[in-house]
Amino acid sequence: MIRSVRAAAHVHSDWSDDGSRSLADIARTFALLGCDVVLMSEHSRGFTAAKWDEYAAACQQASTGRLLLVPGIEYGDDDDTVHTPVWGPVPLLGDRRPTGELLAAAHAAGGVAMWAHPWRRDAWRRFDPGWLGYLAAVEVWNRKYDGIAPNRDATALAARTGLRPAVALDFHTRRQLFPLTLRLDLDGGLSRPAVWAALAGGRFTARALGLPVGTLTHGPGGAALRGLDRARRAAVRRAAVRRAAGRAPR
Question: What is the 8-class DSSP label of residue 129?
């Protein structure tokens, strides 16, 4: 029996060196937001094999009958430009490995990989067609880096490469909360293997504000969101200038 669930993708807890929320707090928060699954994506830096095992157990302990925390690691390449979250029955793969090598190792171990925020640091310029056989999706809307509007260039990249579009929060603090979810079609009950299989099989759709993300990339909806995001970013810049002026010596 196929069961459709809502998943929040690319979420960091205080197990990451720049995270702020405990696993228990994340489980409570996303359950209240109506999610069934949280795809965790802790930074690989600072992780060891032993810490990974401890973390996976902690995710299991913090999960509830209502919400499943799926442990994952966000790997960076040698200069921290290309990032790829990986989920699945995969051991820790190490830090700062070349992306192609990392993706091949994850795939060989039965893992599922996603290309994160391709427009951060112009990571898209490093795209290698050889990655296509190993990637389940690419983020076309990353709340932390793209704001409250989808990245039309990333959407075009997904269409050009044939990669499935995904949306992600890149959650570190509550500022990144936004109604971006993946609708996963699970074969069976709510479990890690069922989630991994849905991701690997492409049985998911990206949704924003309850709508398919494609409907908000172009047209009136996309234009409205981009206008709101420009206003938001301008307000953030003005607030930063005011804070800097307040700290300036008199």
Answer: G
Is 89 within 8 Å of 110 (Cβ atoms)? yes
**What's the first-to-final CA gap in the chain, in angstroms?**
69
Tokens 């802790």 belong to: 42
CB-CB contact of 43 with 74 (8 Å): yes
User: Rounded to an integer, what distance in angstroms lies between the CA atom of residue 209 and that of residue 115?
Assistant: 22
**Closest-CA residue to 111 (of 199, 240, 230):** 199
- Alpha-carbon distance 158 to 19, whole Å? 28
* Residue 75 to residue 45: CA distance in whole angstroms: 8
Q: Which two tokens stand for residue 41?
A: 């994506």
- pLDDT one-digit tens code per residue, 161-204: 999 999 999 999 999 999 999 999 999 999 999 999 999 999 99
Which one, of 167, 156, 115, lies nearest residue 9 by Cα? 167
Eight-state DSSP code of residue 116: B
Tokens 């607030």 — which residue? 239
Both structure tokens of 72: 């994952």
In whole angstroms, give the CA distance from residue 36 to residue 22.
18
Token look-up 């430009």 returns 81
For residues 13 and 62, give the distance between their C-alpha atoms in angstroms, rounded to a whole number: 12
pLDDT at residue 64 is higher than 80: yes
Q: List the structure tokens of 28.
A: 């409570």
Residue 159 CA to residue 241 CA, distance in Å, equals 39
What phi and psi values does residue 145 have, to the nearest 5 degrees? -100, -30
